Amino acid sequence: PFEAEGVTLLGWASIPSGGLERYELVPNGGHPGAGLSGAKLSHSILSEASLMGAPVHEEVSVASPEAVWMCLKHKAWLFLSTAPEDSAPYAFIRLQEAVLRETDLQERSLVLAGRKKLGGDGGGPFGDGGRFPLQLCFLLADGRFQPFEAVWLQLQFPSDEELQSWSSALGLACCSDVAPELPSGDGWI
Known about the structure:
mainly beta
């Protein structure tokens, strides 16, 4: 990683099918602040910027639903773009409101989620109590923005080295209510 102009880390990843799930409350089954009781998972989405025909980086699987160029800035903001030469990202996440929920070495993926709620009920998609939604902000081409509450964001990486770099950097930048165990020694190449 390098620290030029506040940039902590740059690189490609992909959001697999189902890797970005919207946090939605069922009208008669839940209300704001009720945790995930009454919530359902919707289909994954693709941003409007990613649908504009941006080329896919050759290291990211063509089968992936959405290739994403990521930029971690000031160890606090994760910006998502369609390509490194994009002048503006299509979305961002404020990492102080997120946790690195898990790291999967076999899939070369990690999962970002919202922070745990105090006194969680043991439910939720991870079975570890209620969580706040993961807050993403989509930046629209006309200058507007669209807040998006997600249950999680899964990111897959093209190499073990990139997974290790991103997992370490995001683990330091995110809220610390969960500290995933990472292998030591020969678990990382």
